[in-house]
Design a protein that fits this description.
alpha/beta; Rossmann fold; 7-stranded mixed beta sheet; 6 helices; 7 strands; binds zinc ion
């Protein structure tokens, strides 16, 4: 049976930046990757940008089988906790994932922290819950789990180019994406990596 994977993000681009290489690797190996994007990211762009379309295309390039786009209000997630928990619970029930990727709680952004807290509650029955970093993750983020994405880094960079409305952001620059992956890999002496905090890891 192929693995079912659920990746959860607050805004378009969170999933791709935090675990896009890992998802591409899982999809390559036959996993069914499902993405849950909880807002359309209206605060992070000029009027008219289709951030959810950008994210949809990027996630499909990374091998996602299914993308569920929700419309929670960008920057106001703390006021929507119960609805967020219910939405993530429904996604968990529909996908029955063996592993969840969600946002980590060590983050400046209130939406990211709220997604972390709500995921931990909603995914209480999932054996593997890994928390990925974002551009606003705090410096103390110290990953315990690493995925070697040497063979997926180019695919991740190409997929992130779909986010044309975010193209000027420093963390979207190709040089930054490469350096960050190399930094994570260097922490354990291998090639480019993504790093995660393990909330729960049943082997
Ligand atoms: Zn975000």
């Amino acid at each position: 049976m192929p693995l079912d994977i659920l990746a959860i993000g607050a805004h378009p681009d969170d999933i791709e930046l935090g675990c896009g290489g890992s998802l591409a690797k899982l999809a390559r190996d036959g996993a069914r990757v499902h993405a849950l994007v909880l807002s359309r990211g209206g605060r992070g762009c000029h009027d008219g940008a289709d951030r959810s379309g950008e994210s949809h295309r990027a996630l499909q390039q990374l091998g996602a089988l299914h993308v569920q786009q929700c419309d929670f209000p960008d920057t106001c997630f703390p006021a929507c906790r119960n609805e967020l928990i219910a939405t993530i619970e429904r996604a968990c029930a529909a996908v029955a994932p063996q592993r969840v990727y969600t946002m980590c709680g060590q983050d400046h952004h209130q939406d990211h922290r709220t997604v972390h807290e709500c995921s931990i509650i909603a995914c209480r029955g999932v054996g593997q819950v890994l928390c990925y970093e974002s551009p606003s993750t705090l410096p103390q983020f110290a990953p315990q789990v690493f995925e070697d994405i040497s063979a997926q880094l180019e695919q991740k960079i190409l997929a992130l180019r779909e986010h044309a409305s975010q193209g000027e952001r420093q963390y979207m620059q190709e040089s930054h994406l490469r350096c960050h992956a190399q930094f994570r890999g260097q922490q354990i002496g291998i090639g480019p990596c993504e790093g995660f905090l393990a909330h729960r890891m049943v082997l």
